[in-house]
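Progress against Task 2.4 (sequence-to-structure conversion) is shown through the following example record, which the project officer requested during the mid-term review.
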Amino acid sequence: MRKTIFEQMGGTYTRVGDYYLPNLLPAEQEEQSIGVWGQRHLRYIKQHRKVLYVNLLTSGKLNSHLAEIDEQAEDMFFRLVNQMAEREGVTEQLKAENQMEWVGRMNNIRSRATEIVNAELIFA
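Structure tokens generated for the chain above:
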């Protein structure tokens, strides 16, 4: 009996009753932990970039893509926070002298850095 195109490409069938059903499982994915940035990006592509989401899911690259985005976003966030704090003079000395002002300024810096990361990586 001749092989079907599906079988020639490495596909297999499972017999269920009188029928042969193709085994359509996604490729094995290496499980990687995904942080808050990766979860935000996943939610975004599920809602707004459905074709990209389905392509990544069916090719088995979704988890690695999300882990890469998460790592890039985390690095960018910490780099931005450090640069902004240095530029604006938010130092450990200010923290020792006036904790409330330091907390307020750092929260402002973290909020701006979050907006930048969201615009540049997560929702792009």
